[in-house]
Amino acid sequence: MKAYVLHSYGPPENLHLTDVEKPVPGAGEVLVRVRATSINPYDWHHLRGEPVVARFMGGGFGKRRPSHPILGCDVAGEVAAVGAGVTRFRPGDEVYALVKHGGFAQYTCIPEDHLAPKPRSLSFEQAATVPMAALTALAAIRDNAKVQPGQRVLVIGASGGVGTYAVQLARSAGAAVTGVCSARNADLVRSIGAAEVIDYTTQDFTRLARGFDALVDIAGSPSVWAARRVLRPAGTYVVVGGNAGRWARPVDHMIGATVMGKLTSQPVVITDTPAAPASARDLVELTALFDSGAVKPVVERRYPFAELPEAIRHVETGRARGKVVVAVE
Predict the structure, then answer these.
(1) How would you class 279 by CB atoms within 10 Å of its CB: exposed for 0-12, middle for 13-18, buried for 19 or more?
(2) How would DSSP label each residue in 203-272?
(3) How far apart are CA 145 and CA 138, in angstroms?
(4) Residue from 74, 91, 88 nearest 31 by CA
(5) Is 157 in contact with 218 (CB distance < 8 Å)?
(6) Which of 16, 32, 131, 150 gives a 20 to 30 Å CA spacing to 195?
(7) Cα-flanking dihedrals φ and ψ of residue 169, to 5°?
(8) pLDDT of residue 199
């Protein structure tokens, strides 16, 4: 089979499309023919080995070279074969999953309890946008912010992959959502359910009247202390990510937010994407939202498998709207 193999940290050019042995499913595993994957900051962090501090914090980074030669955490495809003991899936089933690695390949083996049936309403390419981004947004909105009907939620970075899902999930939970993004993305953010949109290039959202029940910080607020002013006294500050840097960002941003939480009455929560098999159970919950039409993927660009490195370069610019998908031939 074909797969992108990474031998050393660096730019997208370090990914080499190579012939490798097709994996064989072991006991409890499912061999999935990958039909589509999508690009996430998680992928290019592991591609470049950045921030460098993360190499000494675990999380799948090798200190000097990549721990996993085949990256890719979003998978949507068809079951090609099953290992001994697999009972929930059979060849031909359409599935999707969040994996730690292996998505940048034509085939990958995934434990049975990490898989979920693909939403019937979504194509493979649309489904590939869901696992990392939508699960992260779900954790932020449902588990961390605990959004309830009638609440007000501010989403910083509302036009990105996680942001577009966070806006929709907060709206579907009954909240009034204000999205922060650039002017060129304002119409998009309104179209997915934001009641109000703030253009961060011309308006300082930290000067808004205090009144938000939750602030979901995906883009990495330049001043956590200033941003907290928009929250109610007991409002929750949810940190999802931040601008990347070579050495420490966004780790330092998350540490700063955590320290702030120790000094104020406003809870500060760092969002972690659910680990499998919990992620598979959450994908089933998301499937119901997609099939009902309550939530929809936002796909900006589609790339063929041969141009996967170019797709990564585009996402690295930080200007992608919604998700960037790769069709795996």
Answers:
(1) buried
(2) --GGGSPS-EEEEEESS--S-HHHHGGGEEEEEEEEE------SSSTTHHHHHHHHHHHHHSSS-EEE--
(3) 10
(4) 91
(5) yes
(6) 131
(7) -70, -40
(8) 96
Q: How many CB atoms lie within 10 A of CB 8?
A: 9
Token pair, residue 142, equals: 């449902």
- Reference 29, options 109, 114, 118, 117; nearest CA is 109
Alpha-carbon gap, residue 326 to 321, rounded angstroms: 15
DSSP reduced 3-state for 286: helix
Phi, psi of 90 (to 5 degrees): -140, 160
- Nearby residues of 161 by Cβ (< 8 Å), 6 or more positions away: 38, 40, 129, 132, 133, 320, 322, 323, 324
Predicted pLDDT at 275: 75
CA distance 212 to 126: 32
| Contact (Cβ atoms closer than 8 angstroms) between residue 248 and residue 56 | no
DSSP three-state, residue 278: helix
